[in-house]
Amino acid sequence: MRIATWNVNSLKVRLSHVLDWLAANQPDALCLQETKQQDSDFPLAELQQAGYQAVFSGQKTYNGVAILSKSAPAAVQHGIPDFPDEQKRVIAATIGDVRIVCVYVPNGQSVDSDKYQYKLQWLAALQAWLKAELVKHPRLALLGDYNIAPEDRDVYDPQAWAGNVLVSEPERAAFHALEQLGLHDSFRLFEQADKSYSWWDYRMMAFRRNMGLRIDHILLSDALAPHCTACSIDRAPRKLERPSDHTPVMAELALP
DNA sequence: ATGGCTTCATAGTGAAGA
User: Fold this and answer.
1) What pLDDT digit, counting tens, does each position of A12-63 carry?
2) How many other C-beta atoms can be found within 10 angstroms of the C-beta atom of residue A61?
3) Against a cut of 0.85, is the pTM above it?
4) Distance A42 CA to B8 C1' (A)
5) Nearest nucleotide, C1' to the C-alpha of A160?
6) How far is the C-alpha of A31 from the C-alpha of A118, rounded, in Å?
7) Is the pLDDT at A250 greater than 90, yes or no?
8) Stated in angstroms, how far is A15 CA from B9 C1'?
9) Residue A99, burial from CB neighbour count under 10 angstroms (0-12, 13-18, 19+)
């Protein structure tokens, strides 16, 4: 089973990139973030023509998440239960016998902003929900844009970023709290090249200079992690014309 | 570099992203 995540920064603008990437990589499930479309505008027909089913939770202008899958999604969940939130940041579905949870974690803007407090509260609610969800679904994968670089090696210039949003200690503690539920950062299960990132700023020629962060992740539960055979970041879509600022992350599972 | 692109919603600029 091949599962992947990609913050597309507008599915409307990036649909051709997504269709090309699906054709080339044939994932069994692809989680999307920042679709920035209301559900009535979701390009379901184009994706179905490409052989994919989809569940989605969108809104105008901001946020928006979706799960594309080759097989039928079951037990679809929108949002975090008992955490009222207008922002469409979570969708979950069972694909095959794997619980796929797609998240777009709040950015936080800056550590002294209200949005940062919202981010930390949101992450606490996510953690509490997943603790229960893992009991119901031991085979669980948490994919998405976490807006957290877990370690300094995930940051191109740790000194410049020290204490900043995306790398601050409370955010990293929230990431480690997810790991403490038995969720494993699939990328770090394998040897990886130094300076591996999943996001690069549009400005400053950041991609060409590899000034990036690794903030998009695939976490696998205790039951899934031993069956993971590979995890990689695909930089190719970031080189296309009018790219998303994020690039896909993909994991392979050899499930018994 | 003091936010230097890109998106969306707008019909001039402004908000938000990370």
Assistant:
1) 999 999 999 999 999 999 999 999 999 999 999 999 999 999 999 999 999 9
2) 9
3) yes
4) 16
5) B1
6) 23
7) yes
8) 20
9) buried
Residues 128-147 of A with CB under 7 A from strand B: 145, 147
- Let me know if A104 is a catalytic residue: yes
Q: Which residues contact A180 (CB under 8 A, 6 or more apart)?
A: none
pLDDT surpasses 90 at A256: no
pLDDT in the model for residue A28: 98
Instruction: List the catalytic residue out of A28, A52, A104, A185.
Output: A104
Give the CA A35 to C1' B10 distance in Å.
20
Measured torsion, CA atoms of residues A119, A160, A201, A184, in degrees rounded to the nearest 10: -50
Q: Using 50, 70 and 90 to split pLDDT, how confident is the model at A216?
A: very high
Mapping DSSP to helix (H, G, I), strand (E, B) and coil, where does residue A191 land? coil
Which of A102, A211, A122, A226 has the alpha carbon at shortest distance from A175? A122
Q: What is the mean pLDDT of residues A142-148?
A: 98
Alpha helices (H) in chain A, listed in sequence order = 11-25, 44-49, 114-136, 158-161, 169-179
